[in-house]
Design brief:
Blueprint (H helix, E strand, L loop, with lengths): L2 H15 L3 E6 L11 E2 L2 E5 L6 H7 L4 E2 L7 E2 L17 E11 L3 E10 L2 E5 L2 E6 L6 E10 L3 E11 L5 E8 L2 E4 L5 E3 L1
Parallel strand pairs: 1-10
Antiparallel strand pairs: 2-14, 3-4, 3-6, 5-12, 6-11, 6-14, 7-10, 7-12, 8-9, 8-11, 12-13
InterPro entries: PA14/GLEYA, PA14_dom
Pfam families: PA14 (PF07691)
Keywords: Signal
Length: 188
């Protein structure tokens, strides 16, 4: 096989393996709109070494509430640093819930970056899925339609196995991506 064909085959394989959400998803606003929210996101933690979201979900029934997350801006940690607000650096499972506020209706691009597995939904639509053990990498960009300004429910399952950890969310319109500010998140 020629080098050109090998490279083309590799690129096609990588494209097929990468998570992708090609269609625009319409999000459903929270109904009724919540009031009196605290800033951040609620999180429940459990501590088990898993390699997949399925395994993580099977263990999260034993999770206990942890200190709330400030938002979703947890940069790639140094080895030994605690994962988010948990009590451990490794073998961390998290069930994250709350709300995200969009200040204006329109079309938004969303990107989640995680180390390791992540499944996230906003307004009833799955917006990120990146299973397995991997470095701090993107789950891909998802385009969503926000029908009205306001709060939208957000839920996520996350796990970190070994080494470093990260969990980030970016958003933008017309290709201008930036980190979602912590002030855009709320929980009861």
């Amino acid at each position: 096989m020629s080098l050109m064909l090998k490279c083309t085959t590799l690129l096609v394989g990588l494209a097929l393996a990468a998570p992708s959400f090609a269609q625009t998803l319409t999000l459903a606003p929270a109904s009724p709109q919540p009031s009196g929210l605290k800033q951040g996101l609620a999180v429940d933690y459990a501590y088990y070494g898993v390699r997949s979201l399925k395994e993580a979900k099977g263990k999260l029934d034993r999770a206990k509430a942890g200190p709330p997350l400030q938002g979703l801006s947890y940069l790639d940690s140094d080895p030994g640093d605690k994962t988010m607000t948990s009590t451990s650096a490794e073998k961390v499972l998290a069930a994250i819930s709350g709300y995200i506020k969009f200040d204006a209706p329109g079309t938004y691009d969303l990107e989640f970056i995680s180390n390791d597995g992540l499944e996230a939904s906003i307004g009833g639509q799955q917006v990120a899925l990146f299973d397995g053990v991997h470095g701090c990498e993107s789950a891909g960009v998802t385009t969503v339609q926000v029908p009205q300004a306001g709060w939208y429910e957000i839920e996520a399952t996350y796990f970190q196995r070994k080494g470093t950890a990260c969990l980030l969310m970016d958003w933008g319109q017309a290709g201008n991506m930036e980190p979602v500010p912590d002030s855009a998140f709320g929980y009861k």
